[in-house]
Amino acid sequence: MQTLLHFLSSYGLPAMFLVILLEYACFPISSEIVLPLCGALAAASGNSYFTLILLSTLAGILGTCGCYTVGRYGGTAILERIAHRFPKAEKPLTASRNKFEHYGIYAVAIGRVIPLCRTYIAFIAGASGMKFVPYLISSLIGITVWNSALTGIGYVMQENW
User: Fold this and answer.
1) Residues 96-132: pLDDT tens digits?
2) How does DSSP assign the chain, residue by residue?
């Protein structure tokens, strides 16, 4: 945590962009820690809240596009391998995929504000063959809501961090 704090404090907005991008690209970084911390550091350094929202949303979109691409071009094979290796998983995977295909746009937008689901929904969207533009729009909505809430908490509570 100290290393992350030092990195973000030393390099400011570019470091925040990089860390948020990595978090959305499925690196093991918790948004529930990173986004409020970025909000607090942005407030302490005098950066605009709206600048932080734009920066974090752009980082989120770019990071999630990588996961979507992996899902789009390799997700079906990965899911088939899981189903083959774990036969009991085949039925739930198929049911989940059918539900996703029915509610895809809504699943992505709402999934973006559910911890853990919010990161891996990109892979599932790609693997299910969801078209990129609807994926991008629904992700943009969910990412903006999530980032606004968590960075806003940090921004407002900056003095109590």
Assistant:
1) 778 788 888 899 999 889 887 888 888 889 988 899 9
2) -HHHHHHHHHHHHHHHHHHHHHHHTT-S--HHHHHHHHHHHHHHTT--HHHHHHHHHHHHHHHHHHHHHHIIIIIHHHHHHHHHHSGGGHHHHHHHHHHHHHHHHHHHHHHTTSTTHHHHHHHHHHHTT--HHHHHHHHHHHHHHHHHHHHHHHHHTGGG-
